[in-house]
Amino acid sequence: MRRVVITGQGAICSLGEGVPQILSAMKNAECGIGQMAFTDVERLSIQIGAQVKNYEEAKRFSARELTFYDRFTQFALIAAKEAIENSGIDITNEIRENCGVVIGTSGGGLGTQDENYRQVFQEGKNRVHPFVVPRLMNNAASSHISMVHGLKGPNFTVSSACASSNHAMAQAFATIQSGFADVMITGGSEAMLCFGGIKAWEGLRVMSKDGCRPFSNDRNGMVQGEGAGVFVFEEYEHAKARGAHILAEITGFGICADAGDIVTPAVDGAVRAMRGALKQAKINADQIGYINAHGTATQMNDKTEAAAIREVFGSKTPLVSSTKSMHGHLIGGTGGVELLAAIMALNEGVVAPTINHNEADPEIALDVVPNEARDIETDYVLSNALAFGGLNAVIALGRV
How far is the C-alpha of 214 from the C-alpha of 261, rounded, in Å? Predict the structure, then answer.
């Protein structure tokens, strides 16, 4: 079976632009959540979020490019560029036909939809721009990454709510394993922080008005974020032959469905996903040193995930943390940004903390690395995604 490794990483989110800046923020327990700024935000009950700060699209892309690039596409392109440069790969004619793209997103071009619905319904306009459809379609990001970099291998988009990034990376992994490609650009991107996006989520009553506190006894809901995390996945021998620096090996995935409730998670589903990742990785539970948890800071999700972790790992649970406390919940893009923390734990021996942890919840009963980063030495880590629709996707990573 062909081995798959990670040779490049790129990201942008509320904690910064570029992986070094984001990892520094994670190590220093910085919070990227604050007051949001966009049209009609004052009409919302929820006015906090993890926005990318000081972002000026006109300074990054030409007017023609912005005709086609929704904000989520822009984030994906920024992260993909960094990941490709970080990998040191030379996209030659030989490589480009064996290099594909698969990106996860839930909302796609939601900002474009929001803007154009406002023009039609609120401002009474009868026309929209002719490129609204190619701008808002969910596959816009993966398509534009391939066009910018000339990548002619398999290309598609995965949309499975909060598990979109992890599912996309699982598909990239399988694509390389099966021999359909040698290199895949993969991860996730999301930009749902607009009036329509937040107004819809308000109706679910799962959002916090004052902060994200995963696993803390006083938690009261999730906080949304935006951004992208993108990686270069590469067949091991291919990476080795070109002398690539290998960040980690993807050792396994666990993917399953609860087949239960559309919004309420099930312990059984999370258990099966984690055990599935361990089985494919051919490792024992006690070899996992760290889990980047889904950890949304809702009452039900945190309790369910904690119970599943205890069932899988017994009395010897690994360190667990939720970086959503810092960068918010990027929905379809969240797994991409969270994988950075998993790789950091492997390579730098640092576990990003769960910040805003004010009071232990006796029903959680895990070491959630509260408020300060922790040193660790481990050969294997997991990153969990447990999505609406009962869709679970867990990644296992190992050192090479």
Answer: 22
